[in-house]
Design a protein that fits this description.
two-stranded antiparallel sheet; alpha/beta; 13 helices; TIM Barrel; about 300 residues; 8-stranded parallel beta barrel; 10 strands
């Protein structure tokens, strides 16, 4: 059965930024997180996702996850929605994450399957429905097989979409993205930065691009071009962004993103171990690629 307008509206269409967690001396830098959140809200992104892969959510303590999420929601103060990533091997532990975070004014949760276990479709379905039972907020599924070791197939995503709280999926497989987009059963958000232009031009609901940390104004402009039928302009801008996008994934995420933010003076390049900072060679390449980007675009003035 098709999604209703009410269900579609529970997760805003558009660009959701999977925000980094700024660190300083291995401590979460809450002031920097609030500055970044305001910066991205002012740049015109449609929503923020904290505690995802780019946010090093799996490397933070429960207390750090709560403090960071509270700080970001406080900073944007309802100007844009904030979603939190929750994940892990044990379903009961993920449900406990949700129970703690549910006290905050969140727009929903981004939920991958349990990693490492390589559970069956029925196991994934049980996991997702159990988590949904611990909140009244919407869930966005997260299909990222190279990290979890299992796949949310389009067929499974459609089955799960029958649950009133499971309203969207962040999809990292381009083929699955195209298949999902053929049916209006669940909101489809591109989780593969290199595929985001095709997804937008095909009418996809939204994108979750880590590379948008660097020049959010240009990614917002790309979205505007696609939404208004300016396909040629969107392709030209995406061609300019493509070298930077490739560099953001040349080493394990989010090290390249944080290196870029450090070059811009917006946060440190520090990542939490066992992640390692971006190499000097890659940092130099990122610096050169950023210098070639177009001038700053003020989205709200357009």
């Amino acid at each position: 059965m098709p999604r209703t307008e009410t269900q579609r509206g529970t997760v805003t269409d558009g660009l959701w930024l999977p925000m980094v967690t700024p660190l300083r001396n291995d401590q979460v830098d809450l002031d920097a997180a609030q500055r970044l959140a305001l910066h991205y809200a002012e740049a015109g992104v449609d929503g923020l996702i904290v505690l995802g892969t780019t946010g090093e959510g799996g490397l933070l303590t429960d207390a750090e996850r709560f403090m960071l999420t509270a700080s970001v929601t406080e900073a944007v103060h309802g100007a844009i929605p904030v979603m939190a990533g929750v994940g892990g091997v044990a379903t009961h532990a993920v449900c406990e994450q949700v129970r703690r975070l549910d006290r905050l004014p969140l727009a929903g949760y981004l939920v991958p399957p349990p990693y490492y276990l390589r559970v069956s479709d029925e196991g994934i379905a049980w996991h997702m429905r159990s988590i949904a039972g611990h909140t009244n907020k919407p869930l966005m599924l997260y299909n990222v097989p190279k990290r979890t070791g299992c796949t949310i197939s389009p067929e499974l995503a459609w089955r799960l979409a029958a649950h009133p709280q499971i309203v969207a999926i962040k999809e990292c497989d381009p083929a699955n993205m195209r298949t999902l987009a053929m049916q209006d059963l669940i909101g489809v958000y591109c989780g593969d930065d290199a595929s985001m232009l095709d997804h937008l031009l095909d009418g996809g609901q939204g994108v979750v691009p880590a590379a948008a940390h660097v020049r959010p104004d240009l990614f917002v402009r790309l979205l505007q071009y696609a939404r208004t039928g300016r396909a040629d302009a969107a392709r030209a801008l995406f061609q300019q962004l493509s070298p930077l996008i490739a560099l953001m994934f040349a080493e394990p995420n989010p090290a390249p993103v944080k290196a870029a933010l450090a070059l811009l003076g917006q946060a440190t390049a520090e990542v939490r171990r066992p992640l390692m900072p971006a190499s000097k060679a890659l940092t130099a390449q990122i610096d050169a690629a950023m210098a070639l980007l177009p001038p700053v675009f003020i989205a709200k003035a357009a």
